[in-house]
Amino acid sequence: MCLAVPGKIISIQGEDPLSRIGKIDFGGVLKEASLAYVPEAEVGDYVIVHVGFALNRVDEAEAQKVFEYLREMDQLAELDEAVKPGPASGETPPAVR
Q: Model's pTM, two decimal places?
């Protein structure tokens, strides 16, 4: 299932609004996402991310509600699996479900 998930911008790389990349914290899971669609976004903002693109800003209270729903559904583990090291780092990849 594909979801748009909220995350907090931890850092931003780049000056050009079309090529800025944010390091996003999804409840403890860190990933990068394009900030091209949210040029006004700043470090500390929460954004909704889908397939590697931040789509819009969201307030912290709303983001926390979504994190709680994902925890209840045990869906945060899927995000964590997506960023675990694979064979390139010498570890065995997770089993295919």
A: 0.70
CATH number for 5-83 (one of 1.10.245.10, 1.20.1600.10, 1.20.950.20, 2.30.30.140): it is 2.30.30.140
Long-range contacts at 79-88 (CB < 8 A, ≥ 24 apart)? 79/5, 79/26, 79/27, 79/29, 79/31, 80/28, 80/29, 82/29, 82/31, 83/29, 83/30, 83/31
**Look-up: residue for tokens 């850092």?**
11
pLDDT digits 0-9 by tens, 8-27: 999 999 999 999 999 999 88
